[in-house]
């Protein structure tokens, strides 16, 4: 489809893709008001795609009775909100909000425990559709990714903007959920653009307008400027990106170190990071939030064992191993404790992960009550050098052989076919229910991703 290049008066309809000369309020062919126009519309090629309220959207797709009702995806009254539909968001519900606060804000909400297997399956369907557009797809999470569509116009017979709009239509029709897309010349602004018109959004930020657009935005729009750092900037009188634009790079470096360089460049819309289709995982972990606070090792150890087995299963499935075991605890007042221990060699064994984590946990069971427990491994590598035979500890070698035999039985008869003494008969404490867990199999350095 031939399209005018850089013509501010020649857009297209996002619903039927008809080209629209001039500035009509609606599409002349289908009557839709969803028209895309921008001075740089046909020459931008970096896109960010984000599924709208992904978990909730999948649940509403599978149960049409939920369509016009507020839906929260989360794990029980003691858990946190994984995501909420836009009806619930209007009433103040936000991701990561404690469930009791979410229900205070929206008491009529329908709460659904996450079904991660289903969400991963749908996420892979969306990812496959992305990869059909371009090989340069950089996933950020299960439901969002960067795409570099440069050089694809000859393949698709359309400029990237039309390819992106058509992709949004097909996801809605074929998968049954909606997406929002941002289009720009760099990753930073593409990510910002995808958030501007949610849900079912399509926004463009061009190079010519970048500095003026950013000048009016709060400093928190820059990645890495969270609440704590925003407070530091505010104490220095810096609230908007425009104020950062007025400062020299040397001054920002002097005040804020390496973060000052990021502030200087991103405030001016300068971001030369490329879209990388592959990134190595930094860690593999699993965690769960309890229905009631737990303090004793007797109560916590079965949970630790079950989570260690989950982490081990993920490592084995991915043919990976980790050399540092990381224990995560959250107190009843939401204070986070993390403890870690480096091993002599990489491991993928549940037994070794568990016993290392148990040693760390024993030092933290001092009467403190915990609402969350997690275990993971970092310093990942291939598993070809994992868990070499221990010539000194014969019992460790026997436990490793036994674990291998258990894995075979579980692969054949299911995860519940064989249990350890720690988890047997312990119910949800010893084997945490899948929906209540944070299913983040990979944790990556955020600046590499966003």
From TrEMBL:
The record marks 55 as: Substrate discrimination. Its EC number is 2.7.7.7. Keywords: Cytoplasm, DNA damage, DNA repair, DNA replication, DNA-binding, DNA-directed DNA polymerase, Magnesium, Metal-binding, Mutator protein, Nucleotidyltransferase, Transferase. Residues 422-450 are annotated as: Disordered. GO terms for molecular function: damaged DNA binding; DNA-directed DNA polymerase activity; magnesium ion binding. Transmembrane segments: none annotated. Pfam families: IMS, IMS_C, IMS_HHH_1. It catalyses: DNA(n) + a 2'-deoxyribonucleoside 5'-triphosphate = DNA(n+1) + diphosphate. One of its GO terms (cellular component) is cytosol. Coiled coil: none annotated. It is found in: Cytoplasm. Its cofactor is Mg(2+). The active site is at residue 144. It comes from the Bacteria. It is an enzyme of class 2 (transferase). One of its GO terms (biological process) is SOS response. Mg(2+) binds at residues 50, 143. Binds 2 magnesium ions per subunit. The keyword tRNA-binding does not apply. NCBIfam families: PRK02406.1 (NF002677), PRK02794.1 (NF002751). PANTHER family: DNA POLYMERASE KAPPA, DNA REPAIR POLYMERASE UMUC / TRANSFERASE FAMILY MEMBER. Monomer. Poorly processive, error-prone DNA polymerase involved in untargeted mutagenesis. Copies undamaged DNA at stalled replication forks, which arise in vivo from mismatched or misaligned primer ends. These misaligned primers can be extended by PolIV. Exhibits no 3'-5' exonuclease (proofreading) activity. May be involved in translesional synthesis, in conjunction with the beta clamp from PolIII. This is DNA polymerase IV. It comes from Pseudaminobacter soli (ex Zhang et al. 2022).
